[in-house]
Amino acid sequence: MSFIEVKNISKTFKVAKRGSGLKNGIKSFFKRDYIAIDAASDISFEMDKGEIVGYIGPNGAGKSTTIKILSGILVPDSGTVKVNGLVPWVDRKEYVSNIGVVFGQRSQLWWDIPAIDTFDLLKDMYKIDEKAYEKTKNELISLLKIEDVVKVPVRQLSLGQRMRCEIAASLLHKPKILFLDEPTIGLDAVSKKIVRDFIKKINKEENTTIILTTHDMSDIEALAKRIILIGKGKILYDGTLQKLKNRYGNNKKVVITTQNRLSNINKKGIISHKKNEIGYEFIVDVNILTINEFLKYLGTKIEIEDVDIDNVGIDDVIIKTYEEYDL
Amino acid sequence: MKLYFHAMRLHLKSLLEYKASFVFGLFSQVFVFFSYYFIILALFNKFDNIKGFTLYEVLLTFAIIQFGFSVNEIFARGIDQFDDLIVDGSFDRLLIRPQPIILQVLCTQIAWIRISRTVQAIIVLVIALVNLDIAWSIEKVLVLILMLLSSIAIFFGIFLLMASYCFVTVKGLEVRNVFTDGGKHMAQYPIGIFRKGFIFIFTYIIPYAFVNYYPILYFLGKSDNKFYMLSPIIVLLYLIIPFYAFKRGVKKYASTGS
What we know:
The structure holds two protein chains of two kinds.
Chain A: E1 4-17, H1 21-30, E2 33-47, E3 52-56, H2 63-70, E4 78-83, H3 92-96, E5 99-103, H4 115-125, H5 130-143, H6 159-171, E6 177-181, H7 189-205, E7 209-213, H8 217-223, E8 226-231, E9 234-240, H9 241-247, E10 251-257, E11 270-275, E12 279-285, H10 291-299, E13 306-311, H11 314-324
Parallel strand pairs in A: 3-7, 3-8, 5-6, 6-7
Antiparallel strand pairs in A: 1-2, 1-4, 8-9, 10-12, 10-13, 11-12
Helix pairs in contact in A: 4-6, 6-7
Chain B: H1 2-16, H2 19-46, H3 55-75, H4 77-80, H5 82-87, H6 90-95, H7 101-108, H8 115-131, H9 138-165, H10 174-187, H11 196-205, H12 208-212, H13 214-219, H14 226-230, H15 232-238, H16 240-256
Helix pairs in contact in B: 1-7, 2-8, 3-8, 3-9, 9-15, 9-16
């Protein structure tokens, strides 16, 4: 039996439909039309202990609905979830003692006082034993490099400092599962690196199972071997990142520096092109059009000053996948 | 309980972060309260009594209601402002913590700044008690304590009921003011001075009369009915309703997410 088992969960929300303007506003006050939105439909997956999964999808795809169901906040309309033998929404109190959740856009720290005070409160919240608490707290503080940061009122911290405190706060009770909802959103490069290194470390050393949602694909590349791609409430892809990349692996990104303007591009194999500050950016399918042929073709049209060729990044792969599924 | 005391300390610490606004806040609370107080004084400047109730008797009624209300404004502030938790999504956070939900909601806000109102209510209570000629006995002490407790209980119940209503509609809870502010203003006076319809509503629908009307009749020796003495206990029974409603609300939240 897997550590996390999600079987056929579905969840539909009724959302009030409202037109714009006062007239519709008044109308909706008396009579509301509802539209049903499938935030999750027939979602199933399994995870082993100690696995890191990147849970990705565009806004409104149903990511947070799944996270909320897995963390026991929401009850699905149908389907079952078992985590470590417990049903999240049934055995709520017991279950939540074993999970940690970081909502990147929502703070759990008390705004006007130092983070360390929130930590102390969480010790009582989770009834953590004094000795274990001191040990875990000190470890987290040194790993996340927040020795001085935790003594300053939270409102005075930078986003990166605050996020590191948030992560520490979510791990004081040593959860077996950690949900990270956009943990690196808006962070500077240094904080991002500290956060990523830290996530890797606790995964390795504590064998913490981690579910990570993010829009930052470099997070996924750095952390998760496996990704689950979700769109319109359905799982579109579940597998390694590499495999998904290979699907579009024959595409190359070619950046051309030029002063000229380009018109009438019409050649099989050129998937897309767009203008940038220095020239143009192309996506080329090298199975159809080799780089050599591509450059030759382009050379007849413009003066090429410089060429940069790159594998298509994960961002583009994701965008392509979204397009494919019409998201 | 340890958790709640811990939260109390932290809220005090948060408040002290802003020293100037803390001092100013304490004073502004004094003025709000005294405006109510002076209305009663002004009233009795014109009349000796209202339907047989003297100034100090009314002040006693007033102090009991203000006491319970202010205690809730301090310690049940989180429940009073529950719509905020729903609107900004922090209610989700409470659901992922291994503690009772209501306890956690209480921990979210403790408005120490309003402590001056409680102090004032106690002062008025003492003034009233000193000036009233009361034949003290164990029963009278008991009924006084019961009145104060039931006053806390009734406002807690109203706050909790209104909080439960947030699960249905999130914003625009003007309804609450009819029950809390409107009801509170009336219950500052002995309910018996009002028309029958009001007496009925504030006895059976929102049981203010059991907090400070019937017990006060006993307390002031206007009635010997022992049932009046124990009537505040009825208020505690009424609490079942808001607790049940809140529980239902949490359930609904889990299935709709709003």
